[in-house]
Amino acid sequence: MIVVSNRVSVPKAAGAAGAQGGLAVALNSALREHGGIWFGWSGQETEEFTGHLDMQRNDGITTATIDLEPQDIEEYYNGYANRTLWPLFHYRIDLTEYDRNFGEGYERVNARFADSVLPLIEEEDLVWVHDYHLLPLGSQLREKGVKNRMGLFLHTPWPPTRLLVSLPFHERLVASMLEYDVLGFQNTEWLESFLHYVQKEMGLKVNLDNSIEYQGRRVIARAFPIGIDFREFTEAAQGAEAREAHDRLKSSVRGRKILIGVDRLDYSKGLGERFEAFGRFLADNPQDAGKAVLLQIAPPSRGDVASYQQIREDLERKTGHINGAHADVAFVPIRYVNQGYPRAQLAGFYRAADIGLVTPLRDGMNLVAKEYIAAQDPENPGVLILSQFAGAAHQLKDALQVNPHSTEHVAETIRKALDMPLAERRDRHAKLLASVRENDVQRWREDFVKALVGKNAVRTGTTEHNEA
Ligand code: GDG
């Protein structure tokens, strides 16, 4: 198995705080269990691209990485991936930048990825490509003669056709995706958006099993909801490091209720709206002001992109404003922390929190919601408040689901969560836990690989019928 993603991030190499980001966390556990090579960008810059592969073995995982030129990083990573596709795929065409150089850089880096990974691919290998950075990689590899089975999993939402058509050359981008054998999405909503596009914009036929007829082949398109490494995470939540973190947080709040948010600092996560809703809750419940603390852990991300600098400034202003209005000499309601913590400590913080506040404006899945559930004490669990716009809302029906844009609704739901009787908390948690346990990262990987292996694993170049 050759796994390809933009960045390769193994916890030991990433330092004490470990991998931050859903994709890194999921791929680490999938690869540790089953082996294979993980190929991608090292995160390092080089003056001139050589394609040199740095092969390493770390924490049971073989990685192969390349360095990229500054212009590559600017146009492909900061540019097309994070200024064009990421906002567009999260329904933010107001933040989407369309720049010809970005598109060219994106194609160039995908070609560089293809050239560099090519020598690693052996005859029977499966190639599993990840995310919006590498949509055309499959077609680039096909052009170089790769006949292996190749699949793409998209970790983000897929936008509605009406938004996607604002992207110059959208047809070319989608056509390049159809060179994969399997296209995986987080849920049926994003899958249906994709199928709608290929039918309406490309006139393609979609079969009853959602496979797409394209140039004499059948491309499988399906939802594969990603999960967490349930066993690893629940064990971490019960270990000594988690217990210490739990106790440290608990004793610091002196009996107050704890709400927790854990998110990369990203405008898609709805942090500003969340802070406002908490501020509204404090204003509407003066009897409780001083009795609840919001701990928001938000490690900075993509700091070279202007919209991320902007959201960071907005949040600093909002935190200052709300704390200024509701703090007193011995208490501050929002603890806003711009750094990452090791996973075990994170698990302890989740367990200490009475409410998990997961309110993205749009999210492919959202693993934090699942981690929060896995980390709870089943005898005395906290309550998950979950945005209806997270992919996870399709599965986590027993969470308190909210519209994150409605300050009132979120504020009222915080009130409801704090008042929820123990029996209801246990009942909801038990159902959520069953879903998180069953739909874990191992199952996600197995389902995808099963579809990727297909029945007729030999690519003939002519008609091929693959049944997943
Ligand atoms: C993308 C999609 C999809 C966060 N802070 C720390 C830390 N994290 C970890 C969390 C969680 C992961 O990062 C974040 O995953 P999410 O799924 O919530 O969000 P994205 O990073 O946006 O991920 C998303 C995902 O891919 C997988 O397909 O669910 O929709 O956007 O695991 O725990 N980890 C540590 N310290 C931190 O401070 N160690």
From TrEMBL:
EC number: 2.4.1.15
Tree of life domain: Bacteria
Known catalytic reactions: D-glucose 6-phosphate + UDP-alpha-D-glucose = alpha,alpha-trehalose 6-phosphate + UDP + H(+)
A GO MF label: alpha,alpha-trehalose-phosphate synthase (UDP-forming) activity
Keyword Signal: no
Record key words, sorted: Glycosyltransferase, Transferase
CDD domains: GT20_TPS
Pathway: Glycan biosynthesis; trehalose biosynthesis
Top enzyme class: transferase
Any one GO biological process: trehalose biosynthetic process
InterPro entries to which the protein is assigned, alphabetical: Glyco_trans_20 (IPR001830), Trehalose_OtsA (IPR012766)
Family, per entry: Belongs to the glycosyltransferase 20 family.
Subunit structure: Homotetramer.
Annotated function: Probably involved in the osmoprotection via the biosynthesis of trehalose. Catalyzes the transfer of glucose from UDP-alpha-D-glucose (UDP-Glc) to D-glucose 6-phosphate (Glc-6-P) to form trehalose-6-phosphate. Acts with retention of the anomeric configuration of the UDP-sugar donor.
Protein name: Trehalose-6-phosphate synthase
Organism field: Novosphingobium lindaniclasticum LE124
